[in-house]
Design brief:
Layout (H helix, E strand, L loop, with lengths): L3 E6 L3 H12 L4 E7 L2 H11 L3 E5 L8 H9 L4 E6 L4 E8 L1 E8 L2 H12 L2
Parallel strand pairs: 1-2, 1-3, 3-4
Antiparallel strand pairs: 4-5, 5-6
Length: 120
Amino acid sequence: MRKIRVVVANQPRLMRELILATISEQSDIEVVGEADQEAEIMQLVERTRPDFLIIGSEDREKRPGLCGFLLARYPEMRVLAVAAERDRSVFYWAFVDIRSKTVETSEEGILGALRVSSAC
């Protein structure tokens, strides 16, 4: 079975470390890159071609600006925007247009979003 390839980027350091610790223990998920600066994300995605990009989001009501550009360029990729302060995450994917689904910011919520949506 092919592993789910994930890039974790642009999070507050503590949140990024928690997400990395959670997904790195999963046998079906592989972390293929990590970026702590938004400027690094484009090159990292281009180089690694992940199935998922997990990024920080300050406002769950507003799609991160980089999200639309990345999904237009890499429509096969999924984006999980984690809003740590609001205990909510939003999952984005492209299918003719960009769609989203609210995801609980927990180990179960994040792993469930990665696994269910990779089967789509």
